[in-house]
């Protein structure tokens, strides 16, 4: 589950450098524990539950957090305070160790923290360790994503809405560039409100061509300026094929070039996700883009519910998979901290799970086909974006209510190291899976079910 979230101020405490093995100290101020500002599965649910069950306090009067307690306790003291020790151990299990150390923050990105204070953004900067190797040099990559709300009301002119969002995102990208970020991913359909719930076709005006669309040109200039790869999920209009609309991620290279695009593979038909009113399943397969900073892929939103979708990107060699999403609390929030993290483990790559934030209100009421009264909003987009690693560690999630940005320093060697350690590729039975899928696609498919014959025994006369 995603762990600690940062709210009204930057986290207090000291930290180690990325390659240091020294203990990491972490403390949380009291006001960061307020319920309405927490991210999913943050201290309010997990830590408070543990605190009540194990009778320990999250903070002492000086604001010392549980990580401080762990590192300051010598062995004898830990043995004498069994409940406190159990509490700390459970916390470590919930957050998972990264190469035998707790997940750690990095506080050297002064520009990023300054930006977050100026623009009232929630911010997190973290580093993933890997196992030291004698012959292989580190392959460190700085990945960045942001979660944001829309900039203007949905009643504003469409062109104004799009340009306002672009102006809102620009200083975020500027801060990323100044921080030396290598790869940046924006949220699903970042240029617009997530208006597909309304089923109104006027929102198609947000669609734009990949090659020369306004958002592409805007990001190409920034990618080239900052020597940065940018993933831009937009509503695409394919002018060469009957003006067809797609949910598409455009991959812009660090020279401002368009490397390629990927169209959303799985389209939801649940709740108010009326996306098939506008576009259908993509036709680009499971491409992996070999960029200047690593092999990346994009599993757009609903695709995270499909394990084979994740697997296909892994089979094609992905090292980082971004999951730009737009999803609301009532429907998917219990799944959110699990799916991307599980995918990172099962496929031995890093995952950036990105969700927009806020509640978007539309001018005309609509219904959901469930007998409930009509309404004007889709629900609350709960943010809570986070990075996860192939060794099961993950960063704290961003806020559930506030705009935010996350930087993660990733050594891509960890992908190979975990493949060596667990041997998931070697022990998989792809030929068995392929045979089952081939049989399943046939009209005369019969499930391989072996019945208990005793259950069908005729009763005695």
From TrEMBL:
Name used for this protein in its record: Beta-ureidopropionase
Hydrolase among keywords: yes
Pathway(s) served: Amino-acid biosynthesis; beta-alanine biosynthesis
Reactions accelerated catalytically: 3-(carbamoylamino)propanoate + H2O + 2 H(+) = beta-alanine + NH4(+) + CO2; 3-(carbamoylamino)-2-methylpropanoate + H2O + 2 H(+) = (R)-3-amino-2-methylpropanoate + NH4(+) + CO2
Transmembrane segments: none
Family named by the database record: Belongs to the carbon-nitrogen hydrolase superfamily. BUP family.
Gene3D superfamilies: Carbon-nitrogen hydrolase
Domain CN hydrolase: 148-412
UniProt EC number: 3.5.1.6
PROSITE patterns: CN_HYDROLASE
GO biological process: beta-alanine biosynthetic process via 3-ureidopropionate
GO molecular function, one term: beta-ureidopropionase activity
Organism of this sequence: Stephania japonica
Record keywords, A-Z: Hydrolase
């Amino acid at each position: 589950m995603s762990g600690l979230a940062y709210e009204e101020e930057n986290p207090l405490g000291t930290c180690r450098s990325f390659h240091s093995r020294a203990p990491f100290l972490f403390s949380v101020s009291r006001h960061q524990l307020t319920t309405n500002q927490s991210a999913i599965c943050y201290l309010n649910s997990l830590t408070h539950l543990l605190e009540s069950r194990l009778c320990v306090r999250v903070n002492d009067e000086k604001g010392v957090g549980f990580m401080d307690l762990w590192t300051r306790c010598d062995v004898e003291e830990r043995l004498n305070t069994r409940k406190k020790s159990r509490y700390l151990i459970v916390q470590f299990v919930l957050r998972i160790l990264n190469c035998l150390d707790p997940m750690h923050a990095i506080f050297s990105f002064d520009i990023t923290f300054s930006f977050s204070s100026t623009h009232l953004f929630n911010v997190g900067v973290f580093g993933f360790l890997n196992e030291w190797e004698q012959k292989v040099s580190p392959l460190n990559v700085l990945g960045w994503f942001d979660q944001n709300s829309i900039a203007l009301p949905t009643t504003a002119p469409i062109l104004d809405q799009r340009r306002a969002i672009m102006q809102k995102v620009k200083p975020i990208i500027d801060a990323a560039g100044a921080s030396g970020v290598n790869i940046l991913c924006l949220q699903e359909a970042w240029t617009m409100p997530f208006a597909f719930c309304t089923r109104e076709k006027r929102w198609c005006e947000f669609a734009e061509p990949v090659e020369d669309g306004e958002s592409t040109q805007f990001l190409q200039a920034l990618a080239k300026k900052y020597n940065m790869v940018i993933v831009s999920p937009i509503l695409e209009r394919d002018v060469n094929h009957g003006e067809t609309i797609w949910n598409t991620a455009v991959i812009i290279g660090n020279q401002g070039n368009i490397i390629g695009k990927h169209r959303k593979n799985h389209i939801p038909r649940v709740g108010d996700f009326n996306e098939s009113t506008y576009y259908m399943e993509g036709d680009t397969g499971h491409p992996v883009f070999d960029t200047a900073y690593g092999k990346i892929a994009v599993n757009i939103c609903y695709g995270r519910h499909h394990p084979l979708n994740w697997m296909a990107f892994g089979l094609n060699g992905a090292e980082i998979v971004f999951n730009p999403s737009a999803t609301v609390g009532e429907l998917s929030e219990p799944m959110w901290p699990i799916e991307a993290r599980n995918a990172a483990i099962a496929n031995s790559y890093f995952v950036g799970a990105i969700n927009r934030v806020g509640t978007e209100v539309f001018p005309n009421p609509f219904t959901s086909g469930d007998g409930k009264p009509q309404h004007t909003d889709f629900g609350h987009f709960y943010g809570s974006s986070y990075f996860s690693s192939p060794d099961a560690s993950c960063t704290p999630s961003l806020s559930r209510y506030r705009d935010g940005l996350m930087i993660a320093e990733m050594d891509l060697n960890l992908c190979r190291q975990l493949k060596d350690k667990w041997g998931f590729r070697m022990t998989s039975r792809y030929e068995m899976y392929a045979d089952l899928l081939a049989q399943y696609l046939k009209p005369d498919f019969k499930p391989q079910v072996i019945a208990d014959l005793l259950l069908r025994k005729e009763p005695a006369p």
